[in-house]
Structure formats: C-alpha cells, structure tokens
Amino acid sequence: MSEVKGRYFIQTFGCQMNVNDSERVAGLLQSKGLEAADSAAEADFVFLNTCAVREKASVKFRHSLGRLRRLKAERPDLRIGVGGCAAQLEGEKLLERARHVDVLVGTHTLHRVPELLQEAGTTGRVAVDLDRKADAFAIPGEVAAHGNPVRAYVTAMEGCNHVCSFCVVPRTRGPEVNRAPDAVVREVEGLVGRGFPEVMLLGQTVNAYRHGETDFAGLLARVDAVEGLRRLRFTTSHPEHVDERMAAALRDLPRVCPSLHLPFQSGSDRVLASMRRGYTRQQYLDTIGLLRDRVPGLSLSSDVIVGYPGETEREFEETLAVVETVGFDVLFSFTYSPRPGTAALRLSDDVPEDEKRRRLHVLNARQQEWQHRRNEALVGRVEEVLVETVDGGGRVSGRTPHFRIVHFDGADELVGTTVPVEITAAGPNALQGRLSQPIH
Length: 440
Ligand code: SAM
Fold this sequence. Notes:
Blueprint: E1 7-12, H1 16-31, E2 35-36, E3 45-50, H2 55-74, E4 79-84, H3 85-90, H4 93-97, E5 103-105, H5 113-123, E6 127-129, E7 151-155, E8 157-158, H6 169-173, E9 177-178, H7 181-193, E10 198-202, E11 210-211, E12 214-215, H8 216-224, E13 231-235, H9 244-252, E14 259-261, H10 269-275, H11 281-294, E15 299-306, H12 313-326, E16 330-335, H13 353-376, E17 382-392, E18 395-399, E19 405-409, E20 418-426, E21 431-435
Helix pairs in contact: 8-9, 12-13
C-alpha cells in the first residue's frame, strides 16, 4: 500500500482530549480519501491513540498492540500507527518491542499521520515524528469527524503548566498553549451551523485559559454568544483557577450548564502538599463554598487518588470526609500508580495493592450510596433533557443540564432535541423518566 487509501480504524485510550485528537485524525484521514472501518479486522490502517496517565492504560495499549501483531502476521499489508501520550513518553524505544508498527507520532504531530502513512508505504520502513515543539493545533478543529452527534468537543488549550507530583501529562503534552478565542469561536460557529446543539471546551486545566486580554470567563462569554448554541460545557477545571469571574460566568451565561468537574485528589493536607496541588483541603472546601453560593444547584464531579505514597488510613479517611462533606454528583476514583518521570516516583509506593483496592472499594461504595439517595430526591421533578442516543427497544437517553443521564421511551427523531422529562425512578448512575408537558 504505497498510497494512502482504503479503510482506517482508530482505537482511543484515555481522556476527552484524546477522543478529540482521534476525531481530528479521523477527519484528516477522511479528507485524504480513507473511509472508516468498524473494526481493526476490516481496516487497512489501524491507529492506536494512546494514554499514559495510569499504568492500566499502558497495559491495555500493550494488549492491543499484541493483537495487532497477530493480525499483521495474517495480513502483512496492514499498516499500524501509534500516537498520543504513551507514544510521546516512550519514544522510539517503543519500536524495539513493536517492530510491526509503521507510523509513530507524538501528541504534537498527529497532523502528520497521513503523510507518514504514505512514507511508510513507499519506503517500507517505520515513519516517525515525535517533535514536541510542533504546532499542536495543526489539524484545524473544523476537520474533526465528531463521534457524538450532539456534544462536540472543542480544544481550547493544550498541555499543562502544573507540576502535580503524580501526573505524567506535562511530560506527554508539554506546557500550556492557548488557542486564540477567535479560532475557538469560529469552530463553535461551524459546529452549530452543522447542527451540533452542545459544545464541550477541553483543556487539561481549561479554566487557566488566557489569551491576550481574554481569560477563561471571557472565553466562555464569547462562546456563549454564538447564535444557535444550546448548551456549553467545559472540562477539566483546576481548583486554583476558580475565581469570582468564573463563578459569575457559570451563573449568568445562559448556555453554560450548571455542572463542574473539579478534581480534589485527596482530603489530606500532607498528601495534597506532597502532590503539589497548590491548595489545602480547607481551600478546596472554600472554593466549593464560593461556587455553591454564587451558583445555586451547581452539580459537581471530581477525581480522587487513593493509595498515594505514604497515605495512612487516617489520611484516607480525610478523603472520605471531603466526599461526604461535598456530596459530588459523580466521582472518578483511581488507585495511585507510579508513572515514569514524575516527582512522586522518588517516593516509595508503599501502600500495598490490595489495600489500595480496598480503599477504592470503600470510597466507591459510599459514593454510590450517596448518588442513589441524591438521584432518588429527583423523582417527580421535570428535567430538560437533551437527547443523545437511541438505546434500542424504543428507548432513548440524554443528559440534564446538570449532566445527569436520563433514559425514557422515545423515537430516534428525538436525538438532538431538548425535551421535558418527568423523572420516575432513580438508580445510582442514571435516572428513568417519561416525556412530560413542555416546561414554561
Ligand atoms: N488535568 C486534570 C487535573 O489536574 O486535575 C486531570 C488530569 S488526569 C488526565 C485525570 C485524572 O487521573 C487525575 O485527575 C487523577 O485523579 C488521575 N491520575 C493522574 N495520574 C495518576 C496516577 N499516577 N495514578 C493514579 N491516578 C492518576
């Protein structure tokens, strides 16, 4: 296959940023004439867009790469590409154990995938570009082949300037680079023009956004003003960059949804200091207090790590206490895993794996109990649901402004519309409902 042609399949690991990167690579490949395949088995080119945040992500990626080795043994014409965070982190060393890879790119060189695919086909050798200094926004957002017909991801900023001891992201994605507000607004206008009702702005610490005179609240105001946009969300926010202007934007801008993802990572001041998160437990709680005061009804989700080096039972209980005090809508909890090149690697990973798993289990059980109780309190209420997917069997599902999932009876033509739904039942992770009268 010396020319770029045929069918492609992309497997994505990790966060929304990676999903958005894959959407852009997919769009780029389509613009070169390739078509999407439903599986690796049906594809001429398979691209793995990797994640390096936790050990588990690396293990999953290795398994996929192993399966592709077998597939390529059966079909030597198959071309394989690897890109993204793990590729950037491991670099060409990755190729020593994976000689079946044809294309290797990093986080800033995804735009070169079609060109390198062609090069590999012509030369018969692996084509590599891991340049960290390349333009991370080289693939225009407009090119992206969005996977969700309702919520489109739009990258507002790349990289991260924080120095969290556990986190590999600054190494994989480099320092922050903010997109010009005009470019973000143009992309959103284009998406609305193509019928997307909702946009989610992305960045590792999206609320640290600044471009010239435009801060994050300013960017939200610019995007909120895009005619025809119905809902505006963003992720991930860092507690250090929450301020009055951001709280006011959440409260006052009509399309900005009342829902915020604000990782706290630990409830222990010792652990937070060691993590270099830049806030204490009380400062985090004060930030939540400010947000709840300014934005009544705001729903909150968070990330937390258990089993960080040296975490005692008491420190873990401090994390549990924050979870109980705040009452998060959703909690993403992880067991600590040491990552290459991070500051925490110097610390002894001394919490045994089964103790980490026990803490995770205790935390998840408490959180599930709370989510169930909180969701039950919503029964009887009417919520505005933006319908996203057809579940099958005459059922559809969508999200409330607070990002809660609701399933109810409905037909495919509801996808993309906002409808009033009365909540009739609640589980810990989702609500059930029925179409109701319009909300006035
Ligand atoms: N940029 C965001 C922030 O600073 O809060 C989130 C970045 S990360 C992609 C998503 C989550 O993975 C983090 O919030 C953290 O809870 C978790 N995580 C990151 N590194 C980890 C590690 N080494 N072990 C376990 N969990 C980790």
